[in-house]
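subagent[fold] <- orchestrator: predict structure for attached chain, return tokens only, no commentary.
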Amino acid sequence: MPGMSGYEVARELRQEFGKQRPLLIAVTGWKQSSDRILARLAGFDFHLAKPFESNALLELIAPLAQGSKA
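subagent[fold] -> orchestrator:
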């Protein structure tokens, strides 16, 4: 991403909105456990490594259709 990394965006959203922030899902080519930890520390709720099954993403966002965050 030009100008900011996804980690930086997640940190800013977490700082600005706190618990009211949108659901954040990292979709990335980085797959190691350390990458998952960094994503969580930055403020992502979930981490999906590419390639991923579309059903995995659908399961994560399904609660949004029911009005709640996963």
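orchestrator: received. Logging for downstream: Residues 6-65 form a domain with the Rossmann fold fold (CATH 3.40.50.2300). Residues 43 and 66 are 23 Å apart (CA to CA).
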